[in-house]
Specification:
Its main location: endoplasmic reticulum. Belongs to the SEC20 family. The chain is mostly helical. It has a domain of about 110 residues: Methane Monooxygenase Hydroxylase, Chain G, domain 1. The protein contains 3 helices and no strands. α1 runs antiparallel to α2, α1 runs parallel beside α3 and α2 packs antiparallel against α3.
Length: about 190
């Protein structure tokens, strides 16, 4: 039975070392992660799973240590268990730092998305203002051309009014001359002696 306990203890120690290395690698991956939030969340989930497996193996090692027949082996194994627990506490702190950095990254990405939306809205507002400015400039140009047309129309109407007055005066004079001629002819025919 002692031989099977030794094998079990060795296997637990090997798995603890293996999980420890995997956790360290994942924490390094989290530090190096510059990708999307989903990748960071996936790495955090893997770290939690490895921690669970590491805790379970440490508990198994502790149980095996308590079941040891010889007191010296029991104390050595319990010291190893305590050492692993202390290391795990340091790694737990790193895990919480990783989770904190993950939440900070998530918040920063949210802020980045909001800023991107604000920039997009600003670009749309600028585009709308540019279109409005173009419309106003077009309307101003059209107003200037209409103003020129209106001034030309005013000049033509003034000229027409002057021409009309001149025409009336000429018609009046022609009519007066005609009447004078008719009167002269009538006077000469009816009153030749005068």
């Amino acid at each position: 039975m002692a031989a099977s306990q030794d094998v079990h203890v060795r296997i637990c120690n090997q798995e603890i070392v293996k999980f420890d290395l995997e956790v360290k690698a994942l924490i390094q991956d989290i530090r190096d992660c510059s990708g999307p939030l989903s990748a960071l969340t996936e790495l955090n989930t893997k770290v939690k799973e490895k921690f669970q497996q590491l805790r379970h193996r440490i508990q198994e090692l502790e149980q095996s240590a308590k079941e040891q027949d010889r007191e010296s082996e029991k104390l050595v194994l319990l010291q190893e268990v305590e050492s692993h627990k202390k290391q795990m506490l340091r790694k737990t702190a790193k895990e919480s730092l990783a989770q904190t950095s993950s939440s900070i990254t998530e918040n920063l990405m949210g802020i980045s998305r909001m800023m991107s939306q604000q920039v997009q809205q600003s670009e749309e507002a600028i585009q709308t203002l540019a279109n409005s400015s173009r419309t106003i400039l077009d309307a101003n140009e059209e107003f200037k051309s209409m103003s020129g047309t209106i001034q030309l129309g005013r000049k033509l109407i003034t000229k027409y009014n002057r021409r009309e007055l001149t025409d009336k005066l000429l018609i009046f004079l022609a009519l007066a001359l005609f009447l004078a001629t008719v009167l002269y002819i009538i006077k000469k025919r009816l009153f030749p002696f005068l």
